[in-house]
Amino acid sequence: MKKTGILLLLMLTLTFALPLPVLASELDAVTDAADLLTKTEREELNDRAEELAQQYQCAVYIITLEEMGDVGDFDAYDLATAIYTKHNFGYGEEKSGLMFFLSMAERDYALISYGYGNTAFTDYGKDVLLDQNVLPLLGEDAYYEGFTAYLDTAENYLSMARDGKPFDMENALAYEDEKSSPETADTRFETERSSEGEVHPRYNEEEYKSRVTVVILLPLILATALCIHWKGEMKTAVTARTATRYIPSDGFQLTEQKDTFLRRTETRRRIENNSTGGYSGGGNSGGSRSGGTNTRSGGTSTRSGGTSTRSGGTNTRSSGTNTRSGGTNTRSGGFSGRSGKF
Description:
There is one protein chain. The protein has about 350 residues and is an alpha/beta fold. The chain has a domain at about 5-205 and about 325-340: Diaminopimelate Epimerase, Chain A, domain 1. The protein contains eight helices and eight strands. Strands 1-2-3-4-8-7 form a six-stranded mixed β-sheet, sandwiched between helices. Strand 1 (about 30), helix 2 and strand 2 (about 60-65) form a beta-alpha-beta unit. The protein starts with a helix and ends with a strand.
């Protein structure tokens, strides 16, 4: 309880000690003191911000200044919290809200939330809102587009928080899937952002089918028509049943004759040699048989030995580092937010 009192005292001291820039006593939800928007653009964004506050019971602000002035060691975050407190910003008793602050001379920004705004806009949600939706546009001086993206993202976050699932790291993938689902997708033309930040066009299914039909069927029809035309020009060609057209009119004359032997056939027959021997008297006869030698060549079978080698594998996991660039997350006196330069 003592610490809470000290924090409140510090916030009140900061509010009255800071030399705040000259602003009207009553500020609109969109106050463009830096003249970044046309009158029509500012009124359109202001009406949108007031509708979000009534719909979700959480105020959404955009405040721009030409310069912060002489604020000493205080930065954009301190000035934003002082403006929020002095002008009694916020919705309901909890003063719930989200405020985006810009100072053009220093190109400083601050995004702060209070009350229920801290629930709907988590630190991770603020980082995604700024880094992926708002700051890239502001860096190109596309202020109306950047502020529109700010309100669009704020509405999405408030809708998720009302359903009990504030946008955070745990449900970020589910949010991206919901945006790309057929129920929420634009039925005419959309763009989608890849992991590298590149923007690619995406067409709906009906438009895709029509394009495929034109690309495939049209060339096929043209090719078929061309082939039919070419075939029609070849009707004079008929099958020849004789070779009379290739014989000269004065008849066939043989100018040279030559015999060429292509192969020779030679036949051989084996003649058996029989030797007989004997003598008379005794009635014995003898015979001789030529001896033969059978030779069987020996063979050697050789089997080469094989060596099976299995190389050991090493699984390596490279450690990853998540880095948040271009801002500082701060919590103080019920406020939470981030500030930096754009």
